Amino acid sequence: MSDRAPAPAGPRAGAAPAAARAGTPGDIPAGIPADTPADTHCPYCALQCGTRLSRAADGAVTVRPTPGFPVNQGGLCQKGWTAPALLDTPDRLRTPLLRDAGGTLAPAGWDTALDTIAGRLRELRARYGPDAVAVLGGGGLTNEKAYLLGKFARLALGTSQIDYNGRFCMSSAAAAGNAAFGIDRGLPFPVTDLAGAEVVLLAGANPAETMPPLMRHLDGPELIVIDPRRTPTAERAALHLQPRPGTDLALALGLLHAAVAEELLDHDYIETRTTGFDACWRQAREAWPERVEAITGVPAADQRAAVRMLAAAGRRYLLTGRGSEQHSTGVDTVAAYINLALALGMPGRPGSGYGCLTGQGNGQGGREHGQKADQLPGYRMITDPAARGHVARVWGVAPEDLPGAGRSAWELLDSLATPGGPRALLVFGTNPVVSAPHAARVARKLAALDLLVVADFVPSETARLAHAVLPVTQWAEEDGTMTSLEGRVLRRRAVRTPPPGVRGDLDVLHGLAVRLGEPAARYPTSPRAVFDELRRASAGGRADYSGISYERLDSGEALYWPCPAAPGPGGARAAPHPGTPRLFLDGFAHPDGRARFAPVGHREAAERTGPGFPLHATTGRLLAHYQSGAQTRRIAELTAAAPEPEVEIHPDTAARLGVGDGQRVRVSSARGSTVARARLVATLRTDTVFLPFHFPGAGRANLLTGTALDPVSRMPEFKVSAVCVEPEPAP
Ligand SMILES: Nc1nc2c(c(=O)[nH]1)N[C@H]1C(S)=C(S)[C@@H](COP(=O)(O)OP(=O)(O)OC[C@H]3O[C@@H](n4cnc5c(=O)[nH]c(N)nc54)[C@H](O)[C@@H]3O)O[C@H]1N2
Ligand SMILES: Nc1nc2c(c(=O)[nH]1)N[C@H]1C(S)=C(S)[C@@H](COP(=O)(O)OP(=O)(O)OC[C@H]3O[C@@H](n4cnc5c(=O)[nH]c(N)nc54)[C@H](O)[C@@H]3O)O[C@H]1N2
Ligand code: SF4
Ligand SMILES: [Mo]
Question: Which residue stretches belong to region Disordered (predicted)?
């Protein structure tokens, strides 16, 4: 069972899980009294399950689900239960490290480390200009960190070269959502609304493994699942469509075609709440389900059945995940799914809607506060003069002091150490040596830098390449806010003081900024002070947090953005704005209040199979590991559950290749090859193999993936590589 109830089931039923405790006798933190439980949230995914942490007198931290928190309703997945083990992982970073003359990372004091880094940054900037220094952030950073990182880059470094790993995650759905609805909030409704649906269509999402407690809300509805694999989510579906990887765009067009042909459209809704249907239909009219079957492998009858199920339901949702988004056609694919939802009259109706299942812990907030190449806080565009004026006022600088838009994450990584490209990179909250496409090329670029600085709490694969490593606090040691996949702002709370030698990311940014000549007051180190500034910076923007405060959150209010400081309905004397759990009920966020159909036609994936590389490889997640695995590969219970990379192969395909179950194989693409153990899966498509991307070294799935990008979102094509598979001799 992947989603465990409070009394943990499984091997340790009844007892508190051993791995849910961390801390050693003697490690008794000062400052925070023992036995004061703190209600906070899981350090991992965007579901942000409520967790109640307690710390015993011996320093051990225990976790249990926060009673009454509606999102996880008493459940946590294996990763959430075992998260405290990360706090005192044996190789936790506890002192800054600087690479010495002999090339070894050696311990250094904080002042030495920060002085050295600032000195090198100043030199590089003086010699090559401010864009010689780049920053890569992450969707796991709190809102406060993401905000201060963006400000630090634009002001202290003066660089345009900042982006973040959400580019690899959310960017396609964000672009399509903004275009269609005028605003990008992953779920424009609370997750608990899903439970009231009759039908939910999940396109390229596997929440049974990626957000197990979410399945509690999907127990009632009938599910339609679109996934090339028969995942645990698909096992629960009434209808499972199994397209060839990279063909969802055609499939979504086929579903729209079937809806038109079967006269299932909501004409009244299309007429009154949308624009652009005719142009959209002109692009989709050739997408006969039979034609789409030839492209996708999904039977025309199943396409029609799916559309009929959705259309017949009174309350229904269409949700996309990375399976349909991480493509060079990602934006058009999401747009085509949104077109279908609009044609059936779903978005902005009570009990129905479209949403994207945001992935990282703060994947939502991380894309709102200005760590993205083209953005300023409040989800403002950096190219918009009014946005620049507003943010410059809050920051106390002139608008012309703000740099312009920078490169997207992949383009940034690929430009490192090239003529005209950045010579230094500061990494906060991502591990691109494992998680970026064409990872071998990325590692080469990182190794060629004049300066690589990584702030992390573990020696990640990227940290190991750095010239300077800065040890930072972990979730249970810090305060802040996170914005979950439903747009709700949540408090992260400290339950213990950090180990000696470790500093918060806000302190690190402050320390570097003052050494670069910035006024100290510009970089507050208190999360609350940063949040209060973030509120002002976001005021009037698309993601308006100005009405949200730590006081309101701490009093237990459930606040979803937008939540402006201006009072809600009722005028100046009214209660503060209540926040917006459900968007679009009265209208969409475009000036005319209407949603936009997108005129999208069929395009193939950039990567094609061919004689040398006859199979499609797709990549994704396992229940037990999180992302690059930097965190979860350090937790014994999780490595025991998934110790090494396995590639899923259909038994017929394996037989043809002379590969047996459990045998080591080499999977190769035009970029390189990776080694994994074959796992034979009879429900998989015969033309497709699947690899998780959580493993390092020679087992990296990203040694295979390519560099084609979506033209709009700049999302890499993580979900389609053309590969061959061959038996690998034992090492
Ligand atoms: N256990 C675990 N949970 C996580 C994470 C984790 O690393 N581990 N990460 C978090 C993050 S950041 C994210 S973004 C989310 C991601 O959550 P999901 O989107 O659910 O995760 P993925 O496994 O990347 O992709 C989902 C499914 O897409 C399928 N797929 C592959 N190619 C295609 C295709 O062309 N079309 C369609 N329709 N499907 C395809 C895969 O088979 C896979 O089952 O999970 C979050 N939760
Ligand atoms: N092939 C393939 N590749 C993929 C994907 C895929 O589906 N297939 N999915 C993509 C997606 S959706 C995502 S989101 C990315 C994720 O991939 P990464 O961005 O590499 O994600 P993580 O492994 O979470 O890396 C976060 C790092 O930051 C550290 N960290 C965590 N919190 C903090 C903090 O508060 N401060 C600091 N300074 N450090 C912190 C962690 O210890 C870890 O080393 O991978 C992408 N790569
Ligand atoms: S589903 Fe996500 S938030 Fe919940 S316990 Fe698991 S990893 Fe943590
Ligand atoms: Mo993600």
Answer: 1-34
